[in-house]
């Protein structure tokens, strides 16, 4: 307490009346003497809180009726409570102005910005010295900060005024009185808040100045006091902009509807229809993915094989891992269900069986053609099994076809004596063989059917989705249409409301005329009277129409 | 900044030029302040009037708006001048720093006592340029808590925190000054700021963290400060080492410092009592290794 008092006494001597009065007024409203040390210790925070509470009360009063009743709140702010013990500090208490910016007072410069002030008072020759630099920088920075804060504050105030203007325009029809009041009190509240928060931060600031002074060395110790131009907080900015943002976001929902809105909805309907059409079309069936993939793999395998041959010495088979993957995949396609046995596929087996075991099996069917083939195969037999493999690996050759045709119905014998083939080679060979057989009409196509079934699954899924989509689109369209209908109704109502407004103003106009006439004690002419009645009746009609519509709604 | 090399005379001349400009600017600022005060006084009067009337009439509002707009224009003028003055101050510092680096490269390394060093560190933290953003402007990298850009390389003479191995294989983040950066190896050469350790360290970029180049102004750019409760690396007062700490209180003005609680197992709660650390010496924590405070 004593510290505070002595500090205040120093203050008393040093500062202009004006700021002391302000400080006291603030304190007197917020603290009793008991609380004062506590306030000083907690950097003035409690003061802020209490003060803002007061502000609310004040603004409530103001918004209540706008008459003088609230001045008592301002005036009866308990100034005597400060009085005990510090009478020299109690000059004629002037009522504190509730609003106000933290204004910089150039007269206080010597105290708040010592080095800046010192430089100001120097002659051109003396100028700025290197020793000044640190402290001068700090002074300039605090000036800059204050200016920046002031700028933000002013801009937020301008914004809030602008906003109040626009909200007034908007709210005129509904409840102009309420809006107007809230705007006024809002502004007042803002201003007061600004000051309060500014004050709290100023006390912090000056405290710091005090603490720092010894560090800076040559700087004279500045007593802790209230800075007359404390910086205002930027918190305020966000506080002010929140309602603005809210109103901006709400604006489109409250604004009047017009033809353009209908157009947007109609465009939406058209767009939906056209896009739906394209979605409902079933695209033409392409080649089955397994066919595509198999062909790709065939090409890859061939490349790999040729590479392998070319540089057999290169032990590194570059795609051994890849090959394994391909094999794994191809087995998934169901091309080689027998892949557990490392021999050739069923077609190859049948073919081989037909070729090798020709004599005991089909002597009866032998023909001249068959003989030819046999001879050829016997020749081939000399070249050992590798030759056969080569032949198998090159499908589509004419002799092969002939052989196939020649063998006709044959018995299937297991390929136990066959050298193991790479599974993908088998698969490919099987496939091409089967295609050929089918092309020749020698083989039914059961597997193909299976594939088609699979495709049917996709198709049915597609249809299902399309149906769902259609239902959804119909619902959307229905909603859009109903919205358009609502819009149209709303526009009718809107027109009526506009008309009503017009009528209202007309009635007011005539009312004013009548009052003016009465004041001049001039009787109204009949036509004027009729016109007045007509406007009233017109208005009634409009109101009735509007009511009817609203009821229907 | 000024990258030119100055001779001693040139440097002195350049500094003198700027000091003169600074003197003139201070006077200009003063004139401008007096001018804006007129307007602000009338704003105050308007406020008084409004509070006396207990309401804000549309006319008052328009009047206020005009006054505010004029005041904003004044403030912009004033701000501009102050920025210019501060730019001069920074230029002078840059010239002096340049001279210092030159002297160091030439081999005459100034030796400072430990007490003086601590004072110098304190001082350089206080005179670190202050960033005051224009409305809506974002604080740049290396301002306050804003991290550096990934590609940023600290310049010679810049202060950094460097993770170096101590005598007993323990690693510490120390305060150091950049000597050079080798672009090919991506390594910094740094000097321990503590003169008693005559070590020069070569460290990878990962082990070097530049200190902020600007202070953030709590009054306008509080978003560029570490929030309360964040874990940071802070320079332990009266040492040249960074340790893990918890932000306890933010500075509320440009001249104030953070209040941090250092990780300190010797205290029962595991934290030291609150200690003040300047904005410049509070860094984002990067690595969990090496700040165990013993």
What does it look like?
The complex is a heterodimer of chains A (553) and B (294). Chain A has helices at 2-14, 17-30, 36-41, 45-65, 71-75, 80-83, 109-112, 114-120, 133-171, 176-216, 235-254, 259-280, 289-310, 320-332, 346-356, 358-361, 368-382, 384-393, 398-407, 423-440, 446-519, 526-552. Chain A is mainly α and 553 residues long. Chain A has a domain at 488-552. The two termini of chain A are 70 Å apart. Chain B has 294 residues and is of the alpha+beta class. Among the domains of chain B are: 8-109; 158-210, SH3 type barrels (Roll), CATH 2.30.30.140. Chain B has three helices and twelve strands, in the order H-H-H-E-E-E-E-E-E-E-E-E-E-E-E. Chain B has helices at 8-53, 58-105, 114-126, and strands spanning 130-131, 159-165, 171-182, 187-192, 200-204, 208-210, 215-216, 231-235, 241-249, 258-262, 275-277, 282-284. Mean pLDDT of chain B is 84; it is low at 289-294. Chains A and B meet through helix 8, helix 9 and helix 10 of A and helix 1, helix 2 and helix 3 of B.
Which spans of chain A of ≥5 residues are poorly predicted at pLDDT below 50? 4-100, 171-238, 315-319, 334-341, 361-416
Largest interface between protein chains, with number of residues from each side: A-B, 67 and 60 residues
Order of helices and strands of chain B: HHHEEEEEEEEEEEE
Strand content of chain A: under 5%
**Mean pLDDT reading of chain A:** 62
Distance between the termini of chain B: 40 Å
Largest sheet of chain B: 10 strands, antiparallel
Number of separate strands of chain A: 0
Distance between the termini of chain A: 70 Å
The succession of helices and strands of chain A, N to C, reads HHHHHHHHHHHHHHHHHHHHHH
Structural class of chain A: mainly alpha
Shape of chain B: globular
Q: Which stretches of chain B are poorly predicted, pLDDT < 50 over at least 5 residues?
A: 289-294
Number of DSSP-assigned strands of chain B: 12
What helical percentage do the residues of chain B reach? Answer: 25-40%
| Backbone CA Rg of chain A | 49 Å
- Average pLDDT of chain B: 84
What oligomeric state do these chains adopt? heterodimer
Rg over C-alpha atoms of chain B, rounded to the nearest angstrom: 23 Å
For the biggest sheet of chain A, the summary is: none
Structural class designation of chain B? alpha+beta
